[in-house]
Amino acid sequence: MKKETKKRVRNGILIGLVLLLVAAIVFVFYLIDLVRELPRPEKITSFQPSQATKIYDRTGDVLLYEIHGDQNRTLVSSEEIPDHVKQATIAIEDQTFYTHAALDWKGIIRALVTNIQRGEFTYSGGSTITQQLVKNVFLTPEKTIKRKIKELILSYWIEGQYTKDEILTLYLNQISYGSNSYGVESASQLYFGKSVRDLTIAESAFLASLIQVPSYYSPWGPHLDEALERKDYTLSQMLKNGYIDEDQYAQAKNQTLKFQKQNLGSIKAPHFVLGVKDYLVNRYGLEFVENGGLRVITTLDWNFQQLAEESVAEGVQRNSELYDGHNGALVMQDAQNGHILALVGSADYFDETIDGNFNVATQGLRQPGSTFKPLVYLTAFMRGYTPDTIVFDVETDFNASSNPYASYTPENFDGIFRGPVSLRQALAQSINVPAVKTLYLTGMPNVLETAQRMGITTLTNPSQYGLSLVLGGGEVKLIDLIRAYSVFAQDGVLHSQTSVLRVEDSNGTVLEEYADTPVQVVDSTYIRHINDILTDTHLRAGLFSSSLPLTLFEGYDVALKTGTTNSYKDAWTIGYTPSFVVGVWAGNSNNTPMRQQGGSILAALPMWSSFMNKVVHEFPTTQFPEPEPLTSEVPMLNGNYVYTVNDVQDSETVSFPLVHSILYYIDKNNPQSELSPGFNPATDSQFYNWEIPVLEWARKNIPSFEEMYNKRSLYQTGL
Question: Which domain holds residue 22?
Answer without folding.
Answer: 2-37
